[in-house]
Amino acid sequence: MKSNYLLIIFLFLSAFGYAQGYDIGGVVKETGSGLPIPSVNIQIKNTNKGTTSDFDGRFTIKGVSSGSTLVFSYLGFKNFEYKVTSTTMNLSISLQQDSKTLDEVVVIGYGSQKKRQVTGAVSVVDSKTLEILKPVKIEQALQGTVSGVNVTTTSGAPGAALDIRIRGIATNGQNGPTTIIDGYVGELGLLNPNDVESITVLKDAQAAIYGTIGANGIILVTTKSGKKNAKTKISLNTYTGFQETSRTLPTLNATEYALLLNESYANGGKALPYPNVSGLGKGTNWQNEVFKTGVPIISHDLSISGGSDKVTYAVSGSHLDQEGIIGGGKSGFLRNTARVSLGADLSEKLKLKTNVIYTYFNRKSLNENGLASVLFNALNIPSTLTPYNSNGDFTLAPTTGLGIEIINPLAQIANTYNDYNFKKLNGNFGLDYKLFKDFVLSSSMGFNTSNSKSRSFAKQVNYGGKVFDVARSSVSQSAINDNDYSFDIYGTYTKKLGEGHNFAATIGNTIYKQWGNGLFATGYDVPNNSWDFADISLTTGILNAKTNGSYSYDERRLSYFGRAQYDYKGKYLLSAMIRRDASTKFGPGNKIGYFPSFTAGWVISDEGFYGESKFINFMKLRGSYGTLGNDQIPNNGYISQLTGEATYVFDGALVNGSASGQIPNPDLKWEEARKFDVGLDLKLFNDKVSIVSDYFIDTRADLLIPNIPVSGIIGISAPGASAPTVNAGTVRNSGFEFSIDYKNKFSDNFSMSAAYNVTFLENKVLEVNNGTGFIEGGSFGVGQPAPSRMEVGQPIGYFYGYKTDGIFQNQAEIDAHPSQLALGANAAPGDIRYVDVNGDNVIDVKDRTNIGDPIPNATMGFNLQLNYKNLDFSAYTFASVGNDMVRNYERDVTDANHFRYVLDRWTGEGTSNSVPRVTTSSTANTVFSDYFVEDASYLRIQNIQLGYSLNPKYAEKAGLTKLRLYAGVNNLYTFTKYKGYDPGASNGAPIGGGIDYGFYPIPRTYMVGLNINF
């Protein structure tokens, strides 16, 4: 009996000992490079208990019994099992890449594909890059990280739009790519960057599966979701910072300005405006008055995610508040987002997935471009004027010598009142049903619904006889509702036959509809002339002209698509796609378009003759060709609508009515993008180096060109009227992309990754069928011809003006040169000498020629990441080479301020051969010429960041899995010879986009932040 008691006690103690749990922690890394792997699934074998590794590859599981087995799994790597013992504490797990899957799965549209099997030109940006860059808008993260992609700013103001161009500008219409968020058409700039798991860019015929919306490229966004069998993870990311202008332009101080003005007046034979310049000093630096320093920006983001064996979930919310470096809150931006993502296995065959995002933002803005902008006034108003007069009121800029456009910029800011509110709900609901073995039926409903309201107040104000004077106060308000939905249903069949024949086929249908309406109205005579009372319901004034308007629209597309994929043992890869689109933007007979494409690949390194190369571990040759459609034009261009305004004499009185708007073109048809690409993918030195190179030709035919000139008899000048849209051009972009990535672990404490990419691009217009052979755009100065053109044989949007050949030094040089009188004035010593391009011995409009190109010859990015113990450092740079820009922020009135380069002006024979004299007399020095065109090549340090992660064993004591502090600077510095604020800015227009009207500069932002995971 005694022995039985001993046995019972022994078994009890054994069971108790076995039940003792251990807290297991450690880090998961890549074999070879030693870089940490985030989001690795770590599960206790044969249980539902598990976790995932964090951003730095670290993990913790509590209460693991001795003898249990931990299973580490991650897509693209071989599973690894580790048996827990009583001595197990801090693990260092290395996962090996699975040669059969090679890297991650890539989303390619209506499905995904292993990266080694992708046959198109595809680039991916992951969440780690977004976390480092901390972009306010996601578009910023594509600049310098993806070859073939160029992102330009239309303004540095908070909330301003950014333009994305994939492999160049192909049309003078809509050039931006389409964004697909988790399967539905969405808007990239409205997303919270911390909600994004990955961004995939489809640059070639791989995008043909999307048909009509893929001509300018496709950006596929996958948002973050929960992981199966993962405990709840709470992540808090927050940063705060301050902003300042990244650049100021060197203008003349008061004394320099007065001396220069005296010289100008003397050269013009006029009395000196400043007989005594002593005591003027430096005067007012108007840029210092306009630009603010220490301007705040705050961002908070909270997410919760996790999952069981059947359900995954992710919930997040974010808040961003950014004030402007000009005007503070008057050019501010506030954005709030909320997101819910849910996935559920409803049965073994049926899976549910849904993702819903709510976005709200508020934006206030100042006039940012052209002769009316705040910066234009700050640069041109004399430094001899003070911001305020003796009464404390804003100083009025005189009209004499300054014209009617230049005003006190501080008064302009103070008298600017506007407000824009935007609310959007978008998302999708999807079901996957395994109908039978090898066949999955998928359906998805995507939707976007948005409402926006705007209000702007024109205060009754007198600037002293300027164009800005407002005789009657008014308030303008609008309410806009936009909606769309898409319904996709498609089936995917996969089959493996024999030894290595793998087939996959997808066939489906898409229905897409857009509809909405807008209402606009203006009321006059606002009570108390105050923003506080600026509402149409309170206005009392009456105006004879029309003060309200509205619109509504309803557009639809019906599409069918199919794709067939085949590979033999993963070595020989083939894919074919076709899409049939029907769009209501085209008339009868032209609604339907068919868009086929083909891709192929050969994994050379899998061939038996290749052997086991220690130098090249992977080699794939691939190619693609396809046709994609484009219907991104204004609605209803093929019919005539009453969208214009007209005034009629009716019964002896003037009556407001409606008139025909855009002249119809019933022959409108699809614009076609014919894309060719051949590429080579390599992995070298035990996968430490990855190389991707592509040569591409993108030809855009039957361009949909708006406002084609027509007979004046038809009439296109009335309010609301316009010339028709016509298929009238062909543009070709060709180039070469190259990217190389290197990552390596040099020791247990130090690892590094570096990446470089470059894109060479040539743009050429092949055809313009509009009767004149060219299309003009943009503006320069006041009353001058359009400075930009689209013309056969030239790049789209090139600058068209006069070539210069230095400065006339004496009268003899003038007498020996062709007459320049046709340009507006006889030349005198010190004036610009223009080139007689056509050799007819006269300088006139026939001598205008190509004097610059806004499209860069090459763009490139270099990115570096270093990790030493608990410290991490990153730097991201971008460069643009060969892009020209027009300097158009200088007003040519006599008394406007000047920039310091005029100190090198011509003052007598031999003094200068680059900057002309100053004078109040009439000259031809201000006509559009290459004197105003500058090389705007630049290198920008986009981001640097230094972070410190707390040792996990200390973080665990506070109940944390991660605690990281960091400091960084965005837009640190731009190296350039360009004189303006931003050499990389553009107003977004394909023709006239490289003209600088005084761009609001991108702010330099200093920030400190905190990442916490629970």
TrEMBL record:
TonB-dependent receptor-like beta-barrel domain residues: 383-972
Subcellular localization(s) per the UniProt record: Cell outer membrane
Pfam families assigned to the protein according to its UniProt record, in alphabetical order: CarbopepD_reg_2, Plug, TonB_dep_Rec_b-barrel
GO molecular function: siderophore uptake transmembrane transporter activity
Topology term for the membrane: Multi-pass membrane protein
Protein's GO biological process: siderophore transmembrane transport
GO CC term, one of those recorded: cell outer membrane
UniProt domain TonB-dependent receptor plug: residue ranges: 114-218
Record keywords: Cell outer membrane, Membrane, Receptor, Signal, TonB box, Transmembrane, Transmembrane beta strand, Transport
NCBIfam families per record: OMP_RagA_SusC, SusC_RagA_signa
PANTHER family the UniProt entry points to: HEMOGLOBIN AND HEMOGLOBIN-HAPTOGLOBIN-BINDING PROTEIN 1-RELATED, TONB-DEPENDENT OUTER MEMBRANE RECEPTOR
Family: Belongs to the TonB-dependent receptor family.
Stated name of the protein: TonB-linked outer membrane protein, SusC/RagA family
Organism: Flavobacterium xinjiangense
